[in-house]
Design goal:
heterodimer; A: 324 residues; mainly alpha; 14 helices; 74% helix; 0% strand; globular; B: 587 residues; alpha+beta; 18 helices
Chain lengths: 324, 587
């Protein structure tokens, strides 16, 4: 039964990937013009554009373009940036590797603090602790991310001595060769403010969801039974309350992680953080369709992958889903 | 967003300095001597008499990034600046308040021009070496020119205009380069300033076959690259920091700084915060709305330079456009323009750091026609003109255009239009649009903003996909745009952008006026300054009267630096190696 469930979920994910890949192909051909239309440069004559179209296969019938697209994807080829003429994946890898640790750090912060505050708020319902947690969470959740980021730049950065932009001190390694530890510490310093901004916004969301899920669980009869049995508060909350509240939390975490690849566009923009979010803005701005198409596809695959992970975790967290 | 609009800065500066070049050319006709390269002892705009303190890292912040170090494949003006630093050039510009921009030697220490004006002989500084130790010789220059000409209709098209009318280039010895033109070219030196000399031994393999490798090669991704200018690139991060390290064997004045770092910011507030907190030494563009705040910081100095950039409302002036043809009528455009409150734009968008302008060439050109206009802000008179022309207001306060007949017949329709705006401006174009929109609304015309993307994408929307000057195809879909131009000392370039020859290239209006084009050719071949001024005045008047553009404001260029550094001259940004080699720490 369990194996059936897992196979079904994986098969479902594969079908979803196929549909996403196809939609990604269709969407970019449904809009007016094509990838070459917006090219503008001194040598971008009609003849030049025709050559580009030929090279990209845009002059072929749609089904042939689709087969070419699928074939290239199977070979790990997501195309060539119209802007730089480089492989899109080669262009995007550094951005992805810049973004993932920053988003992961922010998400980790939000998960840890969101869960702690959510659980405490639920357990201490209607007390000062609950209200403080609830209003703080609501405050951060409702703040525009870029505005919070600007506050960090203007008021927090200089106060705590953290950099406001980029991913590396401009002077690091210019005249001397820094140690690995120095480079790592510098990288971490540059990650703190954008990660904290993301973390605070996500923290609000997590705290509210966890609080809500915990309140529902803590109202169940088995919690009353546990109390009647004289179990310790921590045991009741951890074993009987939190564990049963985990399903919506796992779903939320999986969804958040799915968007890691997508980056945090506004945060990266405010902090000039050279990640996938900035790459997306740049690709849109420059009408670099192959790059945009690759980013959309990576984002979709990431969401599907983490949803699959969540589905598989459900088996462990709630075996009833297998029977259903 | 860029220091100057990328669409114009490179060629504007190359083509536009004919005045200075003509003067210099006259001096060189009989075998002139180039002025010595400026640099360590030069006194640019922001110079001081502070003693030179060598060393340190000069940290520059910018909101424009280096997209490439391949002179055959780049767009951004920051890339121009970087290539000036890493590649030898025959000549470059110098600037002084008294004389403005003038050509000076870079790698060329002097040059001679033949009596017929067709042969330029450049005498090059001996002993220069590339960063890999190989000598820089005239053969490198001859190879670069020959290769650029060979593939000028393909991979090397981007640098080919620098070699207009060049027939051949020969290295008569390692330190002498002879360039032969097929006709006397008045702006030869200004054109050659845009020529980056490439190392033959590193680039020749890329020129094999159809030469496509010349365009697809990205030296910044294969560091260490072979450089021969004042600097080499130590690290390159497109959307991060690029590090310039001085080349020890550079033939010109050496860099005072031990290194220059150029850091790209997407957010100008972060950039200013870093400048204020001592993380940067210089920023090349202070946002207009932040100037007053920066001025309060006593540790910083703001340089306000007479700007070359003008902003405008661009009217599609293609006489063959099919829709909304009422916007071809200069009277309609004038009436609407009279409802634009330009002073409000100056106050709100530019915080007062701009003034009104009437001519396409802008205030930077000494040949600006001062007798144009000025366009009055008088919306009541504008409304009266539109009433008189028969564009009556409907019940919704929007004016109606009566149906027309004939070749370009169009049905009756309300005066509702889209205004195209790019995202790559260095000012708040959205706010400027709102002021224009309010003005047009007061005239009974409704406009909505259409964001076109960066310069490249917006240009494509103006010209259409199928733009083809030979069949006069293109410029059929947009009605109005709002953008800017960076003009230059000599008006040649700005006057050229409305010629038919620039269709599908620099033209953003689609105007097609043979009489104007004839005048343009005529002014280029008129050596007499007074006669040329007369022609240039007439051309400016024609553009003004036709309302190809409604000129809005002439911006100031604002940069800021800490008091720890001096001898910084933003006039030389993307114009000279001295922009980076000149700055030094105060004692």
């Amino acid at each position: 039964m369990k194996a059936d469930y897992i196979i079904k979920r994986i098969a479902f994910a594969i079908v979803t990937v196929f549909i996403a890949v196809t939609l990604n192909f269709v969407l970019f051909r449904a809009v007016p013009g094509d990838a070459v239309s917006a090219l503008r440069c001194r040598q971008c004559t009609v003849q030049f554009k025709e050559i580009e179209r030929r090279e990209l296969g845009l002059d072929r019938p749609l089904y042939q373009q689709y087969l070419l697209y699928i074939g290239n994807l199977l070979h790990g080829d997501m195309g060539r940036s119209l802007r730089t003429q480089q492989s899109v994946l080669t262009e995007l890898w550094p951005d992805i590797w810049n973004t993932v640790p920053m988003i992961a750090l922010g998400t980790l912060f939000s998960i840890v603090f969101g869960i702690i505050v959510g659980v405490l708020s639920a357990w201490r319902r209607d007390t000062f602790t609950d209200k403080a947690g609830l209003y703080t969470a609501l405050g951060f959740y409702s703040m525009p991310t870029q505005w919070l980021g600007l506050l960090m730049v203007l008021f927090v950065a200089s106060a705590v001595g953290l950099p406001t932009s980029g991913i590396k001190d401009p002077t690091l390694g210019v005249l001397t060769t820094p140690s690995f530890a120095t480079v790592a510490a510098d990288r971490l310093k540059h990650m703190v403010l954008p990660a904290l901004t993301l973390g605070l916004v996500l923290y609000g969301e997590y705290a509210l969801i966890v609080r809500s899920a915990m309140l529902e669980t803590l109202g169940e009869d088995y919690i009353l039974t546990a109390r009647a049995k004289g179990l310790k508060t921590l045991t009741i909350v951890r074993t009987h309350g939190f564990r049963n509240a985990l399903l919506p939390i796992v779903t939320l975490v999986a969804l958040s992680l799915g968007f890691i690849i997508g980056g945090a566009i506004t945060i990266e923009y405010v902090f000039s953080y050279p990640g996938i979010g900035l790459a997306t803005v740049e690709a849109i701005d420059q009408r670099d369709w192959p790059t945009l198409q690759a980013i959309f596809l990576l984002l979709t695959l990431s969401v599907i992958f983490f949803n699959l992970i969540a589905d598989l975790l459900y088996v462990k967290l709630d075996p009833r889903v297998v029977e259903e | 967003m860029e220091h100057r609009s990328d669409r114009s800065v490179r060629w504007a500066k190359a083509l536009g300095v004919l005045t200075a070049v003509a003067l210099l050319g006259a001096a060189c006709k009989s075998g002139g001597q180039a002025s010595p390269p400026s640099g360590a002892n030069s006194t640019p705009g922001s110079s001081s008499s502070a003693p030179v303190k060598e060393g340190g890292i000069f940290r520059v912040g910018t909101i424009d990034y280096i997209d490439s170090l391949n002179p055959y494949n780049y767009i951004e003006s920051q890339a121009t600046n970087a290539m000036i630093m890493v590649y030898p050039q025959l000549v470059q510009y110098k600037y002084s308040k008294a004389d403005g921009f003038q050509i000076e030697g870079d790698w060329a220490k002097s040059w001679d021009v033949s009596p017929d004006g067709k042969v330029y002989t450049f005498h090059l500084i001996a002993g220069a070496t590339w960063s890999d130790g190989k000598p820089i010789t005239a053969d490198d220059a001859a190879w670069t020119i020959a290769t650029t000409l060979k593939f000028q209709n393909g991979p090397t098209a981007e640098m080919a205009p620098a070699l207009g009318h060049v027939k051949s280039a020969v290295a008569s010895d390692p330190n002498t380069l002879v360039i032969t033109y097929d006709a006397p070219v008045g702006n030869a030196l200004a054109q050659l300033e845009q020529l980056f000399i490439l190392p033959e031994h590193a680039w020749a393999p890329l020129a094999a076959g159809n030469g496509k490798g010349l365009k697809t090669f990205h030296p910044e991704q294969h560091l260490p690259m072979v450089a021969g200018g004042a600097y080499n690139i130590k690290t390159y991060v497109k959307k991060g920091t690029t590090v310039f390290i001085p080349l020890p064997n550079f033939y010109g004045p050496k860099s005072h700084a031990q290194a220059v770092t150029l850091t790209y910011y997407t957010n100008a507030d972060s950039m200013l915060a870093d400048l204020e907190h001592g993380q940067l030494d210089f920023v090349d563009q202070v946002p207009f709305d932040a100037v007053k705040a920066v001025e309060k910081d006593t540790s910083l100095i703001i340089d306000k330079i007479a700007g070359s950039e003008t902003t405008n409302v661009t009217w599609n002036s293609n006489p063959r456009k099919l829709q909304n043809r009422e916007l071809l009528d200069p009277r309609v455009k004038k009436a609407l323009s009279m409802c634009i409150d330009r002073q409000r734009i100056i106050d709100v968008v530019f915080s007062g750091y701009a003034d009104t302008v009437e001519s396409i060439v802008g205030h930077i050109s000494p040949m600006e026609n001062k007798n144009l206009g000025p366009l009055q802000y008088d919306c009541a008179a504008g409304n009266a003109m539109l009433d008189q022309l028969g564009y009556t207001k409907g019940s919704d306060d929007i004016r109606m255009v009566p149906a027309t007949t004939g070749q370009y017949a169009q049905p009756a329709h309300p005066m509702k239009y889209e205004i195209l705006t790019p995202t790559s401006t260095d000012f708040n174009v959205d706010r400027e649009f709102e002021i224009v929109r309010d003005g047009f609304a007061a005239a009974g015309v409704q406009v909505t903003q259409k964001v076109g993307g960066d310069s490249t994408a917006t240009y494509a929307l103006e010209t259409d996909d199928n733009c083809d000057p030979s069949t006069s195809t293109g410029y059929s879909k947009f009605d109005i745009a709002m953008w800017d131009w960076a003009g230059y000392v000599d008006p040649d370039f700005m006057l050229s952008v409305v010629t038919k020859a620039q269709w599908c290239s620099w033209s953003d209006t689609g105007w097609d006026n043979p009489q104007y084009d004839q005048l343009y050719k005529q002014q280029g071949a008129t050596p007499d300054a007074t006669a040329r001024q007369d022609l240039v005045n007439r051309m400016q008047q024609m553009v003004y009267d036709q309302f190809c553009y409604t000129q809005l404001v002439n911006e100031e260029l604002l940069d800021a630096h800490t008091k720890l550094w001096t001898n910084i001259d933003s006039n030389l940004s993307a114009y000279s190696k001295v922009f980076y080699t000149g700055p030094h720490q105060t004692g």
